[in-house]
Here is the input.
Amino acid sequence: MKLTKTGQKRLVSNSITYGMVVLAFILVQIVDSTGHLTSSLRGQLVPICAYIVMAVSLNLTVGVLGELSLGHAGFMSLGAFSGVIVSLGLRDMVGAGPLRLLAALLVGAVIAGLFGFVVGVPALRLRGDYLAIVTLAFGEIIKNVINTIYVGIGPDGLRVSMSDQASLGLGETGTVILRGPMGAVGVDKLASFGAGIILVLITLFIVLNLVHSRSGRAIMAVRDNRIAAESVGISITRYKLTAFIISAALAGAAGALYALNYSTVVARKFDFNTSILVLVFVVLGGIGNIRGSIIAAAVLTVLPEMLRAFNDYRMLAYAIILILVMLTSNNDRLKQLRWRFIARFRRGTPQQEVDHE
Amino acid sequence: MTFLSYLVSGLSLGSIYAIIALGYTMVYGIAKMLNFAHGDVIMIGGYMSFVATAHLGWPPLASVLLAMLVCTVLGVVIEQLAYKPLRAAPSLAVLITAIGVSYFLQNAALLIWSSNPKSFTSVVRLPSLKLFDGQLTISSVALVTILACVAIIIGLTFIISKTKIGKAMRAVSEDKAAAQLMGINVNQTISVTFAIGSALAAIAGVLLCSAYPILMPTTGAMPGIKAFTAAVFGGIGSIPGAFWGGLLLGLIEIFGKAYISTQLSDAIVFSILILVLLVRPTGLMGRKISEKV
Amino acid sequence: MRTTRFRILSLVLALGLFVLAGCSAGPTSTTAGTTTAKPAAAIKIGGIGPLTGGAAVYGSSVANGAKIALEEVNALGGLQFELKFEDDEHDAEKSVNAYNSLKDWGMQILCGTVTTTPGIAVSAESFKDRIFTLTPSASSTSVIEGKDNVFQMCFTDPNQGIASAQYIAENKLGSKIAIIYNNADAYSTGIYEKFISEAAGKNLQVVSTTTFTDDTANDFNVQLTAAKNAGADLIFLPIYYQPASLILTQADAMSYEPKFFGVDGMDGILTMENFNTDLAEGVMLLTPFAADATEARTVAFVAKYQAAYNEVPNQFAADGYDCIYAIYEACKKAGITADMDAAAICDKMIAAFTAADFNIDGLTGENMTWAATGEVAKAPKGMVIEDGAYVGMQGGN
Here is the structure.
């Protein structure tokens, strides 16, 4: 089979992306086996994977779909809590940790995807900042509601209450899983770096395939020119909704992975600030640029830890770096300089200065 | 009577949201950017007034003027340093920069004034109004807040519709390139907008801290998000929209707490917001987006 | 598209280089700021708490209090200690990160975390790694539950809820009780739940229960009106002093004058800069620490703290101070030296803390002892605010 030129390019590009993730995994394993991996970095491996999945999935909404979402953490929250409930609920039935993790990730993804549908159907009718505010509102609602939910396992299965722990009526034998604002406590740490990398690869597989599929081209046609796309008969709503649900489901899986890495998880964690954090990954990595999202998520998760040496000035330094990076990366003069530099290396291949935004 | 008391609370809270939302919406209308650092400019305004009254012993009105002056300068400086170089950049890049500025202001305030909360002395030092034989008490701050909000909206409407700079603002918000061709100094107009928005933020900060007298580096964050919500609720870019959006948000918040549930008050506010947007997809007063092929 | 990719990639790479630079520069510069270094072999104590973000005041207070105690202990000339305090932004993930980075530093004993949710996550790690942990102020029982190496300096939340209900019932402080609590906060909800179940047994009549969240902690008109209309003569406030100060202000504005009863989170209200203490007149609270106590130890501490930080210490600072002293006493008793590894220290410290003859007199309590569960035993002091100062409540224990 002969690949077209663009097909070849795409294959190379995709291979680089997958290869990069696998290489990172192998590198970490090597460093770890030689005993040079710091505890600090080792502890961040799983959250980095979770944030990468968050960033890639949000990039599907922001970059590919072209819609601003400010409530992505809400889906993460849904995935986290449903994942925790599943993993704790199965504790007595399924012994094997990886199986429970798998179940938690799947349920987390399904629940978040379901809510993606519920939010997506009305929200995708809106445009621009109005859609953004609906997602923001959704995130806040999720946070508020989970803060009032109590879940326990009694002898006869799951019990849910909206008032307090006592009203679960669990008695002596039951265990409380979710305690309103106190969140879930006593979560088993089932997540591992290996599982995280697998989730990242699956996410990449789903997203890259979607982007390059017929649906993906349709979605991008919608993004670039909705009216033109409509006029050639592309059904906007269906494609948009598909992408939005996939994005939500992946965020749910990321949430489950994240939650199962700590012995406790609270709703407050998945607030507006977390949504914004993930958005920063996406924008800094390049809107629509999947590989960029991966790198940005990894680097920006590690960065604040590296800045611990600045002590009290840590978060101030983080803010300044963020502003400076945005300013320099959008500076025309610097852009031209770099351009000339790159052109020297790739003489012969005509390139156009196209900025994809 | 209880209802009236809630009504006053709601209007007062809503007026503060409205004043903040006006800053959001003006900047959005003209620079087409969501200035997420706006909430933190409010906090700086609060601290300025606090320093002036509590440390320097200035009279309340002078402290408000100082806060307005500092915030105006701050707003213009932020615009020049952080936003102006990104005029041609995609709007999301500017949004992230604004978030960076917001982190910066919060953490700078933390370093300057420490994390210890300060108790703010209200700038309005009049006795509260007692009506119906003391059954209904209306605090003077609430009254001043509501009046200030109405005065600001009238003033702004006048500036925008009658003055030269107002005309320039409308032109820039309509079409930047065309406005430039007509000889309007776009950069200067945007700076003026930031200046006005930041001065409003200072007023909002002082009123917010007077009504709810506690001041921390994170004081502006939540009101900022709420006001942003209010601005979109009313139709972002629309000045009357920000006013009504702010007032309604305040009222819904208080009445939701009072008559439905205090536990779920945030969920109630945001659910109503979503419902309204579903019925009116561009907010209460937002312009219908007409799309060109 | 291509340019974007190159632009971003090169930038992120540049960022990465910066990170690496920061990383290699790290160890040399850390000795400056929060670390109080000692040249001789010192036992390394790690501290974790929020130094930035909305909860920064608690972490900073603990860090400051602990630093004062550390200097005093080191000045005694016996065992030497080194303290490194890391920021966790009141977030479990960041807290575990801080914990891991302290492990890389060589932490032997953990004094943390300051807040509850991060505390639960970190104590699970320190239990696994066998690092002795004494938390100054993470008050949920989940922090210590099932972990033999984790001890608390503060009261547990249930303990405070029960003690408050008993105190109100025994001293007949109110017949109709209203409660306002933060239903997005683990501490507040934890106390509330125990209070309500204990109140039922004590025949306390709870007439109104309302809540707020961190996002709506400004207007309390609705909550106060509900309490007033229900005829409440006492409002129980299991919350921190910042929202409590707003509640007092707004109750005053609406001329509603019930009794207010708070817990240890209420401490700090009198020393909040610029606060009108008239508003807090008559407020009762159960607290282990009072900054204006006349006892010599407290007076000395407050003076030192004010000189160093230009602020009046709150109970968190006192908790941090007491933690260092408790660690010092236990180390002395268990014969711990700086060259031991963390796991060995852990076992000896557990034995020392739970020993029958181990007790500490500190700022937050006399004769404090610890149970094997990790819970502290000390008597809460019933205080009432009179003329802008704490006065021991009569009839109290």
About this structure: Chain C touches chain A through 65 residues (CB under 8 Å). Residues 158-287 of chain C form a domain with the Rossmann fold fold (CATH 3.40.50.2300).
